[in-house]
Design a protein that fits this description.
about 10% strand
């Protein structure tokens, strides 16, 4: 019996080793395929630029429009967003502008795309000679054995050593680009992100942590976790309203299926445009007084017609809500920046709910590019 058990254990160990080896082969194959895609992206971009040279010279299109057209077509071919398509284009271009050793490891399947993208992004502002020096210094490290965060920090450190002036200018530009964004997190939650200078971000986080300590040493009972106290403190300090009080001065639109409106407690959830579904019971909570319901049937919002050229007022709000706050182009999740006519106004298209669509700034630009 002991011999049988030992034999079974050896078989299981051998099978696990074979499976692990197969996984390693597949990972290398995936990395090699990604490298081939990068090469194909570069070749397509080169041919597209050459095809458009006469149009650029005749000022029929701008360089920015050509780049947008390339990114748009790449995004559709790769079935990814314009942001990711632009990153793919940068990888295919910059790997042939000094990052030869990184490109070789990528093609051999030893480096994955996220690490390659991190190196390319770190060296984005350098010229070919400077990238060559960064590439040489990176080759002295065993990049495949390092985690993504360490590869990213290593590449940035080397870039700072190779070209301190460009690194400093990049940091100054980054500070000017500070901003705040919001995005969906699922289950009726949102991610509020602040892109801040490091010292400001650290100071904000430290202030929220101090609020936790003050709450825990107060005489009242502790009923919230550290994360809950920090989140509630953030809301209260930004809005001046405690999280338990109704939000005033801000209208939150909610898409409500007709069946849910007719049948209380129906199975269909309501939806916050751009943030996904939430339980219908949220509508009747006392702190939801500022929510505005938009009734839908089969996913279509019932709206009013308009004879105006621009999408404004209630019609604009309904279109943004219907499109869930996101660009309606395929593979694009960017926020809506423009409301455009599906059938152009110049071609007789009317300013109606059904002829309007939300577009991001990128795809609104793409629509204006001549064929």
């Amino acid at each position: 019996m002991a011999l049988a058990l030992a034999s079974s254990t050896e078989t299981a160990v051998s099978a696990a080793a074979d499976a692990l080896a197969r996984i390693d082969e597949l990972v290398a194959l995936r990395n090699s395929v990604d490298a081939e895609i990068a090469e194909s992206v570069r070749a397509f971009a080169r041919h597209e630029v050459e095809r458009r040279l006469e149009q650029i010279a005749a000022e029929h299109v701008t360089v920015e429009q050509v780049e947008a057209s390339i990114v748009d077509r790449l995004g559709r071919a790769l079935r990814i967003s314009p942001t990711r398509a632009r990153a793919q284009l940068r990888i295919g271009r910059d790997l042939h502008a000094g990052l030869d050793r990184v490109r070789e490891q990528f093609g051999a399947g030893r480096l994955d795309q996220p690490k390659v993208a991190a190196v390319v992004a770190a060296a984005a502002d350098l010229d070919a000679a400077e990238r060559t020096e960064v590439d040489r210094r990176l080759s002295t490290y065993d990049l495949p054995s390092l985690g993504l965060r360490r590869v990213t920090d290593l590449a940035r450190t080397i870039v700072a050593e190779v070209s301190p002036d460009k690194f400093a200018e990049r940091a100054r530009v980054a500070r000017r680009d500070r901003h705040v964004t919001i995005g969906p997190a699922g289950d009726g939650m949102a991610l509020l992100r602040a892109h801040l200078p490091a010292e400001q971000g650290i100071a904000c986080y430290a202030a929220l942590r101090r609020a936790v300590n003050e709450h825990w040493v107060s005489p009242g009972p502790v009923t919230r976790s550290r994360g809950q106290v920090m989140a509630d403190t953030l809301v209260e300090r930004l809005t001046g309203i405690a999280p338990t009080e109704p939000v005033v001065g801000v209208e939150v639109q909610v898409l409500v299926p007709l069946d849910t409106l007719i049948e209380a407690g129906g199975p269909l959830p309501v939806e916050l445009p751009g943030f996904g579904p939430v339980p219908a019971e949220f509508l009747v909570e006392p702190d939801r007084a500022s929510w505005r319901r938009l009734v839908t049937e089969d996913g279509i919002v019932i709206g009013a017609d308009s004879r105006r050229r621009a999408f404004t007022g209630v019609l604009a709000e309904v279109i943004r809500s219907r499109d869930r706050g996101r660009c309606t182009e395929r593979q694009c999740d960017a926020p809506i920046e423009h409301l455009d006519h599906l059938r152009r106004w110049s071609e007789g298209g009317r300013t109606t709910l059904h002829n309007g669509a939300g577009k991001c700034a990128f795809h609104n630009l793409v629509r204006e590019i001549p064929p």
